Every structure is written in structure tokens, then in C-alpha cells.
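Hi team, as promised in this morning's meeting, here are the two structures we talked about. I've kept the exact order from the run log so nobody has to guess. The first one is mostly here for context; it's the second one we should focus on when we meet again. Sequence first, then the predicted C-alpha cells.
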Amino acid sequence: MSHIVLLLCTVSLVGAVLAYLLIPGRKLSSLSGWRFIVAGCALIFLGKVIELTGQFPLLARYVVIGPTEAAALIQQGIGFFGGFLSLTVGITRLILAALAGPKQHRLVVQSLERMITRQEQQSRRLRVLESELQRAYADWYDEERRIIEEQSRFRMILDCAGEAIITTDTAGIVQYLNPAAEALTGWSLNKAQGLPLHKVFRVVDELTRERLPNLVDQCLRGGQVIGLPEHALLLSRAGSEYAVQDSLAPLRDANGETRGIVLVFNDVTEARRMAWQMTYHATHDDLTGLLNRREFERRLRRTLEQARLNHSRHALCYLDLDQFKVINDTCGHLAGDEMLRQIAQLLKSRIRKLDTLARLGGDEFAVLLESCSLDQARRVADEVREAVEDYRFTWEDRPFGIGVSIGLVAITPASEDITNVLRAADGACYAAKEKGRNRIHVVHKEDDTALVKRRGEMQWMFMIPWALEEGRFQLDYQPIAPIGSVKENGHHYELLIRMLDANGDIVPPGAFLLAAERYNLIAKLDRWVISTAFEWLLAHPKHLRQLHLCEINLSGFSLGNEGFLDFVTSQFRDSQVPPEKICFEITETAAISNLASATHFMKSLRDLGCQFALDDFGSGLSSFAYLKNLPVDLLKIDGMFVKDIVGDPLDLALVKSINDIGKVMGLKTVAEFVENDDILVKLRGLGVDYAQGYAIGQPRSLEELN
């Protein structure tokens, strides 16, 4: 089409030139029609040039910003429209000049001039429009450049972020990965773009290894932030696996329209491993690997609830090894520990997979048989008894045979609380021992009350009050020494309660404290310890002046005992012992199980100036969760983590973690069970503040302080 236009234009221009040369009266015509013909042809050529180049040839150097497509079309239109109009006017004026008289010619000329004027006005308006379009284009270009710069800064921030970030469109197609996401997924940005999210971000359940549901659909369907499942495991393209956690959120524009999702996640492999280890240590016995008493009681409590809700029946076996003390005394504690480990594996092999086996302490074990009648439980218990009876423990080529006494109690909808169930099973176990050992005693309804009165259960109920009346309790002290940068002047020790039996031999606290708690005698013992300690300090004023800190243990039962707080405050008031020289130790489990009472008790005495230490820290499942809510000054690291830190890297890591958290919270840390200099060196390297154990000093009578 453009070639035809050029051809017509050329023919017209040639014809106009010939007519000008050949037709008479050319002078008059040259002032009218010829100039329009020439101008029209020129404009047509100009329009064609603009069509081909996209701009005015003479004005190109003055145009700062290239014209838009619309501006080019307007310029092209000016050329073609003006050209054809001028050409038409010129030819018409020539024809009229030849055919019409002067008057008619003048009217036609005037009419054509008005047309030309309107055409020029239209051309000016078109040029104004072109100028406005160019300014609008310049503004748009500036805004586009600003947006690109902002996107560049945003991309830089994402690239430097520590979290892994992936963005997708609404179809779940990956659009962007930052370097952290590339490192974890194993996908580069170039290769991941355009792929579905589930191919790049492959997550499965850590426990079942099943693929997790479509996270993009869940996020877009709900229109809100969703968190990754608790046990999410990322499978990297490189074959690595990472425990991850965090969230997905809809990605919205300025109008609130959802344009995709943004996935932010972190590598929590190490944290999850540490949490699992802490959980394992909190729920398992270190020596045997079986569940510990705390976790067993939790499961027993759950089973009691199921029995009441579902009217189901279960059974509980309480096991106590016979003649274990003989092996301990004859061969030493190493042999006793090895035998307990072997017995644990033996018991494990004789129970059902759904049963729960735990070591309750010392040589006592328990088995919770779920969905099991009393008769079935009796058969299982008898198989366990026979297996232990046939078992031979060999130590240094010396064989030893042992037996086991088992107490068996049914768990029914009518069963009482966990304390009574355990008490009944424990009593039945003692009954089996009294009947000759290595046998099973089944608790029946008619003899539940009689079992409570068994001598094994009842001896401490009489022994503790008798010892209090006869003055057969004494206080020992064990020194606590600073080993880090902490500087201290004066004595610092923990007070320990001891009992003297009828023969004057020392009874360790582990033998009677549990019974004291079970029979609500512990508050009396705590009151005795506080009053005796204060009396002794007042009787030795020189020592009191030299005392830096005296640590006194309190039972969790005492914290909730009515009137105990008033008793302690009255002791401070009456004795004038400086509260800042007294630090009360509360076990982590006691504080957590009586959190409200413990917090009130601690805050009340801290207002007086007392300090508080959280004892056995790390042994509980919720240690770190509750620590920030308890007003403590000292953190005593559980000795079961400390004693093996030289040879066990896991225990070393746990002690380091506890110490680091204590330091972050501004607490002083004390390591228990520091038995030798090698442990002491390790603790110094970790930055622990204090040490307590045989490497520092053995427990001694309080009188030896003088």
C-alpha cells in the first residue's frame, strides 16, 4: 500500500510540474494551486519518512525521550493527512482556475483557505497532544525507573537475609529464591524458576516420612499465614535433609489482590536435635535407657483417665530386684550398674510392644500393661519373674543369681488417683518380699487397705516423727567454690539433712525423703532444717559475719503448704539472720509442678533480700520454657549431665547450652557432681561460675565449720 501511495504522489508531482511549464497563465496558478500540489507531495513524503523512521528527521536530535507508538502515529497522520489535503486543494484550484471566472475563483480560494486554516489548527492541536504524550511518557519512564530501583534494593535485602525465602505466583510456580533458600533446597534460582513449589521445596513428615499436603493451596485457600508442621523435614536436591520450621503467607499487591505466596523457613536441625536430646534425657533413665519415673507417671495418669472415659481395664506391675544390694556391695557400683542395664534389656524382651517399661529408681522397675486383664497381666508377670530367676549375671568370672518381687494391681474405672495406684502396687511388691521374695503378689479389692499398712510402706511414717522427737537428724554442709571469673569472700555451701538410725549410722536422704513427701511429713523436715540452721548461725556470730551464702533445700510440697511462708518470714524476723546470706534451693520439677505457689513464695522472700537457686536444672522436659518465669539467681546444672562431660560430648554440649542460657539471663551457674579435676578443667573452659562435688569438698558435719 505504501508503494502505491508513493507512486501516486510521484505521478502527481510530475504532472504538476509539466502543467506549470506548459499551461498558460502559470504565474497566476503558481500563486494558488501549484504551491499546494508541491506542499502536498512534500508532506506525503514526510509522512512516509516518519512511518519508516518513527520520528521527524530534522527534529530527532531535539527529542530527548523517544516518542511513543501513539506519538509516531500522530506525526505520520500529520504528514499523510496534510499532504493529501494540500494535493487535493492544489489540483482543485488548478481546475477551478481553468474553468471558473475570477469571482468564482476567489470564492473557491477563500473556501480552500478556510479549510487550510482549520487543517493548520488541527495540526497545532495534534502537535500539542504529541508534546503532552511525550511529557507523560517521561513521567512514566521516571516512575518505572524508580520501581526498578526499589525492586533492586528489595532483592538485595532478600539476598542478604538469614532466613530462606521463596516466592511463587498463585499457581504455585517458583519466581524467586534467595541464596539461603538455594543453599537449603539445593536449587539455583535459574533452575528453580518456572518449576512448581513442591518440586523445589520437598518436605515430608520427619516421623512418618510421608509427603506433607500442598502448602500453597492451604495458604491461598485460607488467605492467611500458615505455619509449617511441627516435624517438617526438607529433602534437599543434593541429598541432604534439614529440619525446618516457619510459615507461608499470601503475597498481596497495593490493592490487596493476592499475587502469590512467600515462604520463609529456617534450618532448625541442630535446635531440634538438642530439643530431642533434652526431651530424651528428661523422659529416660540415663543408665538403662528406659523411661524414667516422671515419664512413667505421666503415662500412668493418662491410662487412668482412659480407664474412666472408656471403661477400659489395664494393669500395673511394680518390680523390685532381690539381692541386688549383695552384688553392689560385693562387686561395686560398676557391676551393679552393668547388671541393671542387662536386666532392663531382659525385661524389655519379655513384655509386649505396646506395654510401658520404666526404671523408677535404684533397683525398682515398673511395667504398665495397657488393655490387659488382671489374669493376662499375671501371666506376663510370671514370665518376667521366671526370666529374671533364670538369668545369671557374671562379673569377673563370678556368676550371680537374683530374683524379683512383683506387685500387681488392676487399673479400672474405679481406680483412685496415680498416688494411690502406685502406693498399692508398691505395697504389693513389699508384700511379695515379706512372703519370701521372688514371687508375685496381686492386689485384690479386699486387701487394698491392708497393703498400705505393710511394714515396708509404714516404717518411715513412724521413723521420721520418732527421729524428729529424738533429735536424730543432723545437718551436713558441702562447700561450693567459685571456679570462673566470680570473686567471693567468705563461706559458700549447701546444707544437707541426714538421719541417724537406732544404731547411730547415717541414713542418706534418698532413703527417707520420698516417703516423707508421700506421707506429708516433708514440711516438718523443711521447718526443722530452717530453724536449726538459723539457730546454728546465730550461735556462731563470727562465722555468720564471714558467711557469703548458705543454700537450703526446700521441697515443692512445702511451697504449697499453708503457713509455710509465714513461718519462714517469722524466722528471719525473730533470728535477725541477714536474708541476703540465705539462698533457698528448689528443684526444677517442684517449681514447675507448683508454679503458682512457687512463684509467689519466691517473690515474697526475694523482696526480703533472699536468693533462690533452681536445683537439678535440665532434668525436666519444660526447663527452658519455665525458666524465664521463675525469679531465680542461681542455676544448678543437674549432676547427671556434669559427671560424664569429660568422655561424653553430648553431656558436654548440654552443660554448655544450660550455662550459655543462664548467662544470657544474667544468672550464675553451679555445676553439681564435680567429682574430679578433669571435670573441673572442662567446666572452667565452659565458663561455669561455681562447682560443687567431691573435687571441691565432701559433705561434712556442720560443726566442723568451726
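And here is the second protein, the one for discussion:
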Amino acid sequence: MAQKTGVIIGSGRIRMRSRTKAGFAVGLLVALAAGSAQAILLPPEAIVLHQIHVQFEWPAVGGADEYQLQVVEDDGSPDPFASAIPVVDVTVPATDPRAAVTSGLMFDELWAWRVREIVLGTPGAWGSTHRFETAALPGSLPAITVTPGVGTPEPGLTMFNIGSTNGTIAGGIAIAVDAAGNPVWFLEQPDGFLDLRLLDTGRILSVSGLFAGTDRAREHTQNGQLAWISPNDPDLRAHHEAFPMPGGNVLTIVYTYAVVSNGGAPELWRGDRYVELDRTTNQVVWDWNTFDHFSTLDFDPSPGTLDLGDGAFNWTHTNAVVYNAADDSVYVSVRHLSRVTRIDYSTQAIVYNMGFDMPSGDPDFGDNLFSFQHAPQLLANGNMMLFDNGNRRDHLEHTPATGVSKALELAFTGTPPTGASIDWEWTLPAYQAFVGDTDRLPGGNTLVTAGVSAKLYEIDAAGAEVWRLELPTGVPTYVIYRAERIAALLVDGPGDSDGDGLTDDADNCPDHANADQADCDGDGFGDVCTAALGLSRCDDGLDNDGDGLTDGSDPGCACADDPSERSAALVCDDEVDDDGDGLAAAPEDPGCDDPSDPSERSASLVCDNGIDDDLDGLTDFVPDGDGDGLPDPPGDIGCRDPTWPLEDPECADEVDNDGDGAVDFLGIDLNGDGDFDDPGEFPPDPQCTSPSKNRERPTPPGGGGGPGCGAGAELVLLLGAGLWWRRQRVGRTYSTA
């Protein structure tokens, strides 16, 4: 992208230090009081940014020839510019009231900025003071080391993602660094990152959740505001890659299952579908299923690599899907078949299968060119870049001691291609059994991702190392999935896409107007976005209530700030009146077991369920058939309310069984004032003082103690435990024979 006048080019400083942020709120109030309504203001007031390359923008002032922008460290005072030296001081033409600042700022700092117009060389008065903050870099971010080689690295920033195999990083970190390895932008994702790319709009498209079972594709602003998320549907678990289609839709990979007869025995196999999702509705508008187009005669005999633990045979394990507008084709990398397939987008016909020869005879060419590959990239010259992991080189199964991995450029022969050969290759210093990437850069160098080794290499055409970035090795271990060289982090794009008065980086629903920013489940994704995509408000892929179930699989989920977001086992312990009886479910409403179980009932019915809840030998309650205001015997007339500690104890049935003129009751003093004359309270019957005294009910004919004072009482409250399991999609039956 061409740089605009006034853009400052340079590498950012990084400084981590501890200091108080007192005074920031006071300063913010001053700034807000001084400011007026503005059409656009970047960065938004008081925002916390995850980058130190920052776009500044302000309303135009009529008659100005130039604008002067200053940025200082904010000390929280009413005028932070009084004694501070500006870290940014730049003049830009009035025709474009903005500046992309790429030097001077640092992470973990408070900042103040201001602008004034210049007319015929004479500066005007400074405008309002605005404030923002840059976040601290993640504490789990490992040290980044850059080693220069021969020549000069191609310009730009390097964007990649970092994960750890031992939990050192909780999830994953996406990061962009300059040529010296200094971070200029980052985002964290609890589910980790796989595919990651910068869109033309300046937003980030990524895939996460492979090992968390929460596979989703997401589009964020650079500051992490969620603009779009793929469906939380077991049939549409987006994994490995999300590719932007020309019209704005998203092409991705999802799992599919089928029962396959292998050697006469039925087996559950996992394949892949390639689906195009309408970004507005999340509906599938293009669909291609590997079970429909690949023969199950073809499979790797030992593809246990990266088994996802669902009990299915890991048949295809597609790790890349890209669309090429030049030939209207979809290219997929099918790792466990050591195959790259080109699909005609319009007809869905296979143009070619390139890769290992297999029993079906379907592969057209390319046997042993590569195996267990990643990241096909089409070049302008018609060739293909490919990362060859080499797990099955020469049709053998390799180990770290024998394996070799390469970055390849393949040249095709024929139209459509009928053959391929290696036009350029570079052998990595260490075998990479999984992950990896290779990209041809605009100037001719090649960026290679050695993911297992956590290293990035820039290699020239002669195979010489130009630049190397590496993370620490040993324990803990780090993994890089993919890397991209981007021209710049800041690109032209609308500051307020939906026109609701909130800039995209401060808007929890950037593409749908929602000035109120309502966010029921607190996931940072506005309710308007939720409704627009036809998703549940609990469909953010997170376990907001900590019950061990992600929200889409948690039927109790209504909203994270509403305690009804819960598991079935806790549905009666949420302090919510689920059955509308006026009582919170527990402990006030101990009849609640499950919202789908009628035992979750009102207090007035808890004694009318035909069940001996207190195990005293009596059905708890029968209706008042004669209308005298008293329950009809022989029911359990001691049952009044399940919240009372004794259901039908010897002295708590509100009946003068012994004829002493007093209700036979130990007494209830609800407010503890010593009196029993308040509403709902009952005075005691002094005749009935202890369950060991068989004095409450007279001895029935025939002798023996009656069910009154000698019976005792129990209150049993059973909370059901929810049992949840993942649905398996079992489709048609296929045969390998």
C-alpha cells in the first residue's frame, strides 16, 4: 500500500516497567469535558491498544493548510504537555487530517495527544487533549531473537502466531514484529491460533480451537473487537484455515464423518468438507465433501499424527484451503493423503489430484514430490509454493533422525496440468514433522516457517539465509503455525464501518449499528451481531460460567451476566426462579432437579406430587376436597413448604392431634424476635417438645407408636448431575473394497 504524506516510518521502542496509573481517570475527565462531538477520532478516547503502530485521525478544520500532531507520555495532569517532550511531533497536509505513527510509542504506557491547525504558516491554538493507553505485552511472550544474514531482508512486518506444547502460553499469541524482532502488535486467544492473516480492511482473520474442541473462524479488528465468528455448530467446526473470498464470504474446512467398511469391518472415519460461509448469514453457500470425491481405497496406513481424540480414523486431515481468482479454483492440501487437489469452483469437478500414487488410481501426477505437506501458495508465474514436511518421503515412515523437510516451488506442465516438477527447493536445518509454511515474497526471497523448531527463515533465490527469527528452544517448547510478511499493519479502512458513532476498535459489533453496545453474555461480541448472524447469545465458544461446558453445548446458557448460564447439574442452584413460582431455585426451591423435570415446581405443589418426599410413610399432601381450609387426610398434612427444615415432623403438622387445644408445633420465628405473632409465624405447642416423646399423636388402636412424634423426618434434596457427550456425525457407509 502506498504510504501517505506524513506517515512516520521507523521501529518502535519497547519498554516494560512498573508504574502507577493514578491520575489517568482525572485526566480523561478533563479531556472529555474539553472535547466536542466529533465525526471520527482515532484512536478512540481512553482505548487500550494492543499495538504501537497507531493511526491518528481527527475532524478537519476549514481553512487549515496543515495540521501538527503531538504525542507525549501522559502523567495524568490536566496539561501533560506542560513539561513533557513529545515522542511524536509531525506536520501533515490539511487535505488528509491523519497520520500513521510507526515510531516513538511503546507498550505499557499512558499517552496524551493533541492537534492544531496551521494557516499560512501560523499555528493556531491547540485542540483538546485526548488520551489512550497501550497494553503491556503478555507475560508469557517468549524472547524473540533475530539474526541477520547475507543481503537485506525484504521490507515490512512479520506476522505469526505462537503456541506452546506444555501450556506455557495459555492458548496462543498472535504477534507482528519489525525487522529487528520488536513486537508492534499482539492479540491473545484462549483457544490458540492456527491460520492468521491480515485482510485488506486491516482486520484479522484467524482460526482457533483445534485442540480445545472449539474450532471457530473469527474476524477481529486489530484491537480484538469481534466482527464475525463462524457458527458454533458440530457440523461446521472450522479448522486449520479461513480464507477470504472475493465477495466477502469465508472459505474454510470443517469435519465430516462416515462409517467405512475397511477389510470387512465397519470403522468411523473423519474426513473434511470445504464450505463457503456467507459472512452475513453464516449459511453454507458452497460445499465439497471428501467422502463424495475421494476413494476410501486411498488412505495412509498409519496417519495417527495429530489424532483429535474423537475415536475416528484420521483419514484426510486437510490443513489448507485457498481460492485463486485467476483460474476460479479452490486448492486444498490433504495432509494424510499426501495430496494437493485443485477443484473447479463453478463445477466442483476435480481438475487434478497431485501427490502420492494410491490404490484408486485417482492421483494424476506428482508421486513422491512431497508428503504430509502444508500451505500451497499460487504464484504469479503459475508455479506453486509448498511446505513439504516429508513424513512419508520415498513412501517410508520417518522419524526425527531420518526425516527431511523442504520448502518447494513446483512448476507445472500442460494445460490443465498433467505433470509437475521441483523448480526450486531449500532444505530446512531440522525435520518438521508437523506444521510449517513457505511464502514467496515480492522481491524474490522466500519466508519459511519451521514451526516445530519455532524459527522463521528468509532465504534468497540462491538458498542463502538473509534473516532468521527464533524463539527459545528446550523446555518450555514453542510452536509457530504460520508466518506472513505484511507491508504494514496500518491500512486504509473505515474508522466507523457501521456509522453508529463508535470507531471499529471501540465497537463490540463493528459491522452492525449498536450505539448502546449491549452485550448480554459479556464476550465482547455485541448482541446485535449475535442476532444478525442468527447465533445464540451463548454462542461465543467460551465457558463463561465455568461449568466445564462451552456455551453452545450448555443448555442452561442464557447470558454470562445472568446466573441462568449454567449446567444441568447447577440449574437448581442458580438463584433464578426457573419455574416462575416466586422462589429462587435453590436452596429456596429444593424441589428443583432439572428444568425439564416436573419436580422443579412451586412450593404450593411440592406437597402435592404424590411422592413421599420426607420418607415418613405418608404421601405428602392431598387436596382440600371439602373446602374447609384444611387438607384432607390421610395425606401428609405436615407438608407446607420445602424450605422448612422439617416436613411432617411430630410437632410440625399444624393439627391439634392430641386435643390439647394447641397446634402441635415447635414454633416458627421467622425474624428471630422471640415472638410468634408476625405473618407466617406459628406459636409452639408446649405439649410437643421432642421427637423422642411419643406424646404428639395418641397411640393408635392395637398399640405401638404412631407415625407422629416417633417417626422422625428427613428432607431429601437431589440435584441431578448432567451427562454430556459429543455428537458424532455418522453419514453414509463406504467401503474400501
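Starting points for discussion:
Helices lie at 24-34, 290-293, 527-532.
The mean pLDDT is 77.
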